Amino acid sequence: MSQRPVLKRSLLLPGIAMLALGISACATKKKDLPPPPPATTAPVAPSSGSTSSNSVPPPATVGNANVPGSVADFVAQSGADHVLFGYDSYELDDEARAILGKQAEWLARYPNVRITVEGHADERGTREYNLALGDRRATAAKNFLAAQGVGPARMSTISYGKERPAVDGSDEAAWAQNRRAVTVVAVAG
Amino acid sequence: MTERQALLGAGLAHLLLFAALSIGWAWHHETPPIADETTPVEFVEIADAPRVTEAPKPSMQAAPQETSAPEPKPPEPKPPEPKAEVPPEPSPDAKAEPKPRPKAEKPPPMATEAKPLDTSFLSNLIDKALPKARTKPLDVSKLATSIGPATPRNAVIDPRAAATLIQAIRAQVAPCWNPPIGGADVRKMTVVIRADFGRDGRVLGQPSVVSQTGKTAGNGDYARAFAETAQRALLRCSPLKLPADKYDLWKSVEINFDPESMT
Amino acid sequence: MRIIVPAAIALLAAPASAVIRVDINSGIAQPLPIAVPGFVTAAPVATEAGTTAELGNKVAQVIANDLKSSGLFRPLDPAAYTTSVSVADVTAPQFASWRTVAAQALVTGTVSANPDGGITVGCYAYDVFSAAELARQGFVTTAAGWRRAAHKCADLVYSRLTGETGYFDSRIVYVSETGPKTRRIKRLAVMDQDGAGHRFLTSGQNLVLTPRFAPGQQTITYMSFEGNRPRVWLYTLGSGRQQAIGDFPNMSFAPRFSPDGASLVFSMSVGGNTDIYRMELATRRLTRLTTEPGIDTAPSYAPDGSRIVFESDRGGTQQLYVMNADGGGQQRISFGEGRHATPVWSPRGDLIAFTRLGGGRFSIGVMKPDGSGERLLTNAYQDEGPTWSPNGRVIMFFRSARGGKVDLWSVDLSGQNERAIPTPLEGSDPAWSPLLP
């Protein structure tokens, strides 16, 4: 996975998040060079890393007071930046719809914010099927947001299949966390 | 699957897709070309070792020219030569192979030092004996089957003695048979091998293929390998321990190898 | 073998008598004991890869290792040999001596230096008990290419003794993995079939998945998340050139070459619906092969190019389907228990390998192209992604331990000889090349 800050995960510093201007901006970047195994540096956690629940609050904010319009604010106002799915399912349950509804409200307040919806799967499917399943989940979330009035032009989707679990583990608890669609906001300048 | 209807709408998106495809592909020129890759391997026919091993000699001569360092004295590598003349008979295994060594028919290895450098010369030294050997099964099976039908009329076999004998042969040969496992056609293949025994229980000469089933146009190599496992089984088990007083019954035996029941 | 005819003639001459007939229905299937003494050289000559004498020993070791890895041969411990091999012995082996160590087959050979700096490896195979020569072949290569000559020799021995083509002179491309699961770093890597010559092709900067060799083996197709745009790419070995096959707005993945190398088939997801497409590489012309709603992916051509097997969940869960190369005649073939995924057509055309999901586990299995004869070859927490050896006799796959490591494994068609394939790091998504030319 790319370590460049294309799509910042929630709760990173808004300033850093602003570096990310969307997919196309980076499409022509330097690609793979054979030799050096990349040393992953802490701050550049991949876009699809852990969920907000176990992330560290950004130092820029104090207490629970998030900067309005920030990524942290988006998560706080929506209740979560992600929704969960059942095994091999891409149907949105009531809880997921509630979260996405709040996300849509927040997005309505900040019309300049673009989002990418990431679709993920747990490890209990084959690799390629899970890529397609992740695409279904991301699409389901995106379609719901669209129905709530979020302009399709502001949204894109990407599937990581089972390549980027939120939690490392082979049990029900881990699988449940990993079957998800994550709304990644890019707070544009 | 409630959202499938919505998915159908994706057809529209395909139109966009096709349009987008005309945008072409970006070639990304990658960094350090990686030292390639597959070194070529060329097949050549090879002759008997003495000939092959002449080749290095000139290389030895060539080497010193390039590297001034050591002088490995080209004339030295004579030792193999005397041996090369001996091989035809010295083998202690002669007793196990009563047949004449076919190699003796070949012209003695000619000295070819004139042009040993050229590897292509190797291809001119194809061992003619080899292809010859491959033609064997056809004639043999014809001969053998012509014998088969003739035998029953003699019906001199005492059934009880035969049953005991069959049991003894099976018990001794089966553990020596290493059928080819996992082969595509192994289940459908059987082979009947005829072997002649000396009074000491040793296999005389080579066990021959009487008949073979399951052979198709496409599996000739496999059929041959399969038959060879049966022939090998008999040679490995030789000598069999069988009652001397019944020698007439077992001096020639046909064995049907059938892996059908093997897992 | 050669003296069979005289023996038969002798029979004819003998007085007719009844012939006892014995049926043998069982044997002992075990690896064939084989001796592979070091290849000899008339006089050691220095090459860029060591002296010909050194190479002779290394060549024999590689051959023995190849044969052993097949599970069909048991190379004998050289320490047990009762004879050393002289140059003359290469073509006139001391069969009696090899019998005493219970070798049933023998491989001898020579390594000689060529004037151009290359080497010639002479390879001879014998049946020890019948004292017959089975095969011989010479291989001319560069000194550095000695391993390939050894693999070619091993392939010769394997094919002559088993009746099937060999597979040792081949390579594996796979995904090397390292790091925590949540931030996995994946790199394309290639290595010889026996693990030698391992090389990374990409840096790990981008997530890469599912590489496959082109038939010509100079190109690899794979999926990369480069630029956060998951797409199908081509990697040219040698130049290291990487190229996206198209500027698709949607995710494209699961690429495979057609048997003639002229086309790719792959999946593309559009609005949550995943279908299979074929792209003609020369013209970039794209043809959509499936249209059903659902996930159609993991396409794999029959070796003759006439049909494609793929997986689809159009019936509710992942199952295998076969269609004509033009997308017509789509027909479900898997009806066994559980789900069936990642089908791969055998290079022999007679079988399809797949991943079966059931009972919370993934297994590797095979079935005939009409769906009959399904059988499972492995059983572990997660065995996924089969790929065939060039001769269609061995299947490599990747095995994920529960909450643990991911590694490459192989198993033969009979379900025997399950072995771990060592890689420098963890490994997944293996793909076997065809036999090298």
How are the secondary structure elements laid out?
The complex is a heterotrimer of chains A (189), B (263) and C (437).
Chain A: H1 14-17, H2 23-26, H3 71-78, E1 82-84, H4 94-109, E2 114-120, H5 127-147, E3 155-161, H6 172-178, E4 180-186
Parallel strand pairs in A: 2-3
Antiparallel strand pairs in A: 1-4, 2-4
Chain B: H1 4-8, H2 10-21, E1 27-28, E2 41-44, H3 49-52, H4 56-66, H5 80-85, H6 120-123, H7 129-134, H8 136-147, H9 159-173, E3 190-197, E4 203-213, H10 220-237, H11 247-250, E5 252-257
Chain C: H1 4-13, E1 20-24, E2 32-35, E3 46-47, E4 50-51, H2 52-69, E5 73-75, H3 87-91, H4 95-100, E6 105-113, E7 119-127, E8 132-141, H5 146-162, E9 171-178, E10 185-192, E11 199-200, E12 208-213, E13 219-224, E14 231-236, E15 241-244, E16 252-257, E17 263-270, E18 273-280, E19 286-288, E20 296-301, E21 307-312, E22 319-324, E23 331-332, E24 339-345, E25 352-358, E26 361-367, E27 375-376, E28 382-388, E29 394-400, E30 406-412, E31 419-421, E32 426-432
Parallel strand pairs in C: 2-5, 2-6
Antiparallel strand pairs in C: 3-4, 6-7, 7-8, 9-10, 9-32, 10-11, 12-13, 13-14, 14-15, 16-17, 17-18, 18-19, 20-21, 21-22, 22-23, 24-25, 25-26, 26-27, 28-29, 29-30, 30-31
Helix pairs in contact in C: 2-5
Q: What is the succession of H and E elements of chain A?
A: HHHEHEHEHE
Share of β-strand residues of chain C: 35-45%
Q: Count the E strands of chain A.
A: 4
Give the overall silhouette of chain C: globular
CATH topology of the largest domain in chain C: Neuraminidase
| Unreliable runs of chain A | 1-62
- The fold-level CATH name of chain A is 60s Ribosomal Protein L30, Chain: A
| SS field, number of helical segments of chain A | 6
Largest sheet of chain A: 4 strands, mixed
Count of the domains of chain C? 2
User: Using only CA atoms, what is the Rg of chain C?
Assistant: 25 Å
**Span between N and C termini of chain A?**
25 Å
Written overview of the protein:
The complex is a heterotrimer of chains A (189), B (263) and C (437). Chain A is an alpha+beta fold. Chain A contains 6 helices and 4 strands; from the N terminus they run αααβαβαβαβ. Chain A has a 4-stranded mixed sheet. Chain A is globular, with a radius of gyration of 16 Å. The model of chain A is unreliable at 1-62 (pLDDT under 50). Chain B has helices spanning 4-8, 10-21, 49-52, 56-66, 80-85, 120-123, 129-134, 136-147, 159-173, 220-237, 247-250, and strands at residues 27-28, 41-44, 190-197, 203-213, 252-257. In chain B, a hairpin with a 5-residue loop joins β3 and β4 (203-213). Chain B is elongated. Chain B has 11 helices and 5 strands, in the order ααββαααααααββααβ. In chain B, 37% of the residues lie in helices and 12% in strands. Chain B has 2 domains: 49-125, no CATH class; 137-147 and 159-261, Fusion Protein Consisting Of Minor Coat Protein, Glycine Rich Linker, Tola, And A His Tag, Chain: A, Domain 2, CATH 3.30.1150. Chain B is α+β, with helices and mostly antiparallel strands and 263 residues long. Chain C has 2 domains: 31-162, 3-Layer(aba) Sandwich (Rossmann fold), CATH 3.40.50; 171-432, TolB, C-terminal domain (Neuraminidase, 6 Propeller), CATH 2.120.10. In chain C, strands 5-2-6-7-8 form a 5-stranded mixed sheet. A 4-stranded antiparallel sheet of chain C has the order 11-10-9-32, with no helix packed on it. In chain C, β7 (119-127) and β8 form a beta hairpin. In chain C, 64% of the residues are buried. The model of chain C is unreliable at 1-16 (pLDDT under 50). Classes of the chains: A alpha+beta (189), B alpha+beta (263), C mainly beta (437). Chains B and C meet through α1, α2, β1, β2 and α3 of B and α1, β1, α3, α4 and β6 of C.
